[in-house]
Amino acid sequence: MNISRQVNLQPFNSLGIEVYADYFSQINNLQDLAAARCFCQQHGLPWLLIGGGSNLVLTDDFAGLVMLMAWQGRQLVTCAELHFPTQSAPHIGYWQVAAGENWDDFVAFSIEQQYFGLQNLSLIPGTVGAAPIQNIGAYGADIAQVLQEVQVYDFANDQVFYLTAADCQLAYRDSVFKRRTDWIVTQVTFALSCVPQVNVGYGDIAKHLQQVIKQAPDTASPQQVREAVIAIRQSKLPNPDDIPNVGSFFKNPIVTATQYRQLLQEWPQLVAYPQADGAYKLAAGWLIDQLGWKGHRANAVGVHENQALVLIREPHGTAGGKEIMQLAEAIKANVQQVFAVDLQVEPRVVGAQGKI
Ligand code: EPU
Question: Which residues line ligand 1 (CB under 6 A)?
């Protein structure tokens, strides 16, 4: 394992923030992780693992070791080869994928190989290892529907172990990994179907298939659903390569039915989704949009003009993570003041010593 000094992290975070890591190394296997752990222990350093850096706000130079998860590999295994062997299901293929693989490359590859189930999650930035951490979800699907098991490296104890999908405690933009911050996801196994099944329940997908691809939604192929999702994402969400961003900056807040009804009286246009337990998930983008933040610009940061939930950093500006967080705090305070709703920041915010 090579360790470099004073490495600029700008290429490794989708906000393009220029901060420096005291030490930096790439992780390609378990030996690299074990060596990195020894190094941090010997020198008493904090550590930070970065995947695609697409859900990360860096507010300072990092006074420790940054590890870039670069581990590659994809293999199809049988149900008997799983860590938790399962009953044979002839139409399911189990794909074991290393954490450093690019997420969307794997989605494209799986469809090419005729294994289906990831098409609604097309074009989400980031790596495979990050997928279970925030339970990535979009366009009516999330990782919970296809996750089989996860291999984990415990950085505190130098141990490798496996979790079932249930052990991961997946919930909306949440998992056990948000609480066990010493656990590093090293490999993810997906159960994908050889039978083409599509999920076109999300309104925009059906509309795009009918109007643009000219295909009846129920008979669309997974590849056509992938194309629809890509087109919808590209029309709404800025490409981080052009406009630095981390996707949705806040989670959609969940409120009680009582709070929802009170809000609805004052705001009849409120956009909300009923949850199985009777609560309501509010569209945070709608709340922020109502307050006039869309298109806002100041201090070389701002709010995207098509999606109020996406904060952006001006491409060639000098803004760092602190300016982004100041804007986020101002939006959060405004939403609290007007709607009495607490917005939670979605990306990881990391300072000089680690998570803030
Ligand atoms: N809306 C507005 N104004 C806006 C933005 C949204 O009024 O500026 C309203 C619209 O009524 C719209 C509704 O909010 O119909 C929902 O917006 P959208 O469909 O864009 O979805 P979202 O709730 O803002 C979530 C995920 C996205 C995911 C989309 C599609 C979260 C935090 N975000 O966004 O995930 O792509 O649904 O499924 O749950 C991400 O996490 O980075 C991300 C992009």
Answer: 138-139, 236-237, 247-248, 251-252, 271, 283, 285-286, 289, 294, 307-309, 346
In angstroms, the CA 151 to CA 137 distance is: 21
What is the atom index within ligand 1 of the atom nearest the CA of 251?
32
Terminal Cα-to-Cα distance of the chain (whole angstroms): 28
**Helix or strand or coil: residue 166?**
helix
Answer yes or no: is pLDDT of 349 > 90.
yes
pLDDT band of 52, cuts 50, 70, 90: very high
Kindly calculate the radius of gyration of the chain based on its CA atoms and give it in whole angstroms: 21
Domains of the chain: 4-69 (3.30.43.10), 74-193 (3.30.465.10), 245-350 (3.90.78.10)
* pTM: predicted TM-score of the whole model, two decimal places: 0.96
Angle between helices 222-236 and 103-112 (to 10 degrees): 150
284, β-bridge pairs? none
DSSP string, 89-129: -TTEEEEEEETTSBHHHHHHHHHHTT-BS-GGGTT--SBGG
Q: Active-site residue numbers?
A: 173, 248, 346
